[in-house]
Design goal:
8 strands, globular, 19% strand, Rossmann fold, binds zinc ion, 6-stranded mixed beta sheet, 211 residues
Length: 211
């Protein structure tokens, strides 16, 4: 019945009758690829894939078109990537990269945190720490070049938590910053810097897609 009102479409390719088709799922099944952004965050960066095709459409649909359901396949793919990258002897802490408050509200929530929560639900010994926030005054980065993006973000990502989760204080924990798109690396670099200034050493960055 619901299909008649709101036909389901694959978030990656538009195929009818499913939220996420088998072909698009297969396109995300490989191991993460190494990414080397211009603004180097100083830790290894990994991506589930390139920002094109089904992956690009899915990221845009989750971010701009209110497709909350896509957090499920994207989060599961992040979990597979993390499972291959992590040291299983150590607890994992996932920190979602911050999004601009107004933008996230307009889109009905933060798609990165949503996907990270799904990923965390698949992984053993994993905590989520949504402690990064963007200060007011950060412009939408669409159309900005590398140096303008860095200038736009400098000093504007902060750790915002009354108390840091215990898992983050454990020197044994592997802290991974997670974002949806890696473009110039400016957000990742500023996020890693903000966490470092709070005494939190980030081990790696994992993004859904790299431009
Ligand atoms: Zn598809």
């Amino acid at each position: 019945m619901l299909d008649l009102i709101l036909p389901r479409q694959c978030g990656g390719c538009g195929a009818p009758g499913t939220d996420w088709c088998v072909i698009c799922a297969e396109s995300l099944a490989g191991p993460p690829i190494r990414a080397r952004p211009r603004a180097d965050p100083g830790v290894p960066c990994w991506a589930l894939g390139r920002y094109r095709g089904p992956l690009r459409r899915a990221v845009v649909a989750a971010k701009e078109q209110g497709r909350r359901d896509l957090a499920v396949p994207l989060g599961a793919a992040l979990a597979r990537g993390l499972d291959g990258l992590r040291d299983r002897e150590r607890p994992l802490v996932l920190v979602p990269a911050p999004s601009r408050g107004a933008a996230a509200r307009r889109r009905g929530g933060d798609p990165v945190t949503r996907s990270v929560r799904v990923a965390g639900s698949w992984l053993d010994d994993c905590r989520i720490a949504p402690i990064l926030r963007m200060r007011r005054g950060v412009r939408d980065s669409v159309g900005l070049g590398a140096s303008a993006r860095e200038h736009n973000l400098r000093g504007r990502i902060v750790v915002s938590a009354d108390s840091l989760p215990d898992a983050l204080r454990s020197s044994n924990a592997e802290v991974v910053l997670v974002d949806d798109v890696l473009t110039t690396g400016a957000t990742a670099r500023e996020s890693v810097r903000a966490l470092a200034s709070a005494g939190i050493a980030v081990r790696a960055v994992l993004v859904t897609s790299v431009v």
